[in-house]
Design goal:
The protein has 299 residues and is mainly alpha-helical. It folds into two domains: 139 residues, no CATH class; 110 residues, Orthogonal Bundle (Helix Hairpins). The protein has a two-stranded antiparallel ribbon with strand order 1-2. Helix 3 packs antiparallel against helix 8, helix 4 packs antiparallel against helix 6 and helix 6 crosses helix 8. It is elongated. This is Voltage-gated Ion Channel (VIC) Superfamily. It is found in: Membrane.
Length: 299
């Protein structure tokens, strides 16, 4: 009996040891930890710009401010034929230089791929930019006012200037869809969450600002169309000087234009300022269509 117990005791340890080793192998990753996955990011070349760098984001914010200035001031200057003077002339010349520098930066800024990685392949970056916004950026940066003065062209050559500014305006409208604007929107969203801002009030404020921005562009266009009609125009019908000599007269015309734009977009139409030419009627129809579409989208 004693021998049987001894043999049974000697037979169990190997079997028990194999079971313990099998359990240890199954749970070994839990004891020593799994191998960490290392994500390798491409090294940034020396003369390239990281699109996620703080300096690049600050530069983008500066350009956003310049674009907003261009959006508000340039339509007013072009449509009302008001030349920049003094400090404003220096500022707008510096803005053209800044936009030209941004073109150079776009050729050496890393390209963000759909996978989230950043490509610093120069050929890929150049090809993507040339197929994208290079043409618009280039023509909107040309200093037509300086060139007209340099070659002795009259400063009233607003047709060429208007073409360039319209291209820049197209870029402005499309900039709000770019990634850097969305990143700025995320920053504002974080700030709104931090101060517990009512989201409904924020949405209402954004809609109001959008409407005022559209009204500003429509007002400038309404004045330009009225001024181009020499025989019949809304300017003559309300006894406003179509020539617009003096800042007070220009401001009065702008106020009347904004007033017409808002009452037309909201389809109120008091009837005190009405279209008199076919061009003004066509613009009136287009503005009412835009206003109805805008408020229909909001509702």
């Amino acid at each position: 009996m004693t021998g049987f117990r001894h043999r049974h005791h000697m037979a169990n340890p190997p079997r028990h040891g194999r079971a313990l080793w099998s359990a240890l192998k199954r749970n070994l990753p839990a004891y020593v930890g799994r191998r960490r996955r290392v994500v390798r990011r491409p090294m940034k070349p020396r003369y390239f710009i990281n699109p996620e760098a703080t300096a690049k984001r600050m530069w983008d914010l500066l350009l956003i401010g310049l674009v907003l200035y261009t959006t508000l001031v340039v339509p007013y200057r072009v449509c009302f034929q008001i030349e920049a003077s003094g400090g404003f002339s220096v500022l707008e010349s510096a803005m053209d230089v800044a936009f030209f520098i941004d073109i150079v930066f776009n050729f050496i800024t890393g390209l963000q791929l759909p996978t989230g990685e950043v490509s610093y392949n120069f050929r890929v970056i150049v090809k993507a930019y040339l197929r994208g916004w290079f043409t618009v950026d280039f023509f909107s940066t040309l200093p037509f006012e300086s060139l007209s003065k340099l070659f002795g062209v009259s400063n009233n050559a607003h047709a060429a200037l208007l073409s360039a500014k319209l291209l820049r305006g197209l870029k402005v409208l499309r900039l709000f869809k770019l990634a850097r604007i969305r990143r700025l929107g995320k920053v504002f969203a974080n700030l709104e969450d931090a101060v517990y801002t009512n989201q409904s009030l924020v949405s209402l404020a954004k809609l109001a600002l959008t409407m005022l921005f559209i009204a500003h562009l429509v007002a400038c266009l309404w004045y330009a169309v009225g001024k181009s009609d020499s025989e019949e125009s809304w300017l003559i019908s309300i006894s406003l000087d179509p020539v617009g000599i003096g800042s007070d007269t220009s401001m009065l015309q702008y106020i009347r234009s904004v007033y017409w734009a808002i009452v037309t977009m909201t389809t109120i139409g008091y009837g005190d300022i009405v279209a008199h030419s076919n061009n003004e009627r066509l613009l009136n129809i287009g503005v009412m269509a835009v206003g109805v579409s805008f408020f229909g989208y909001v509702i």
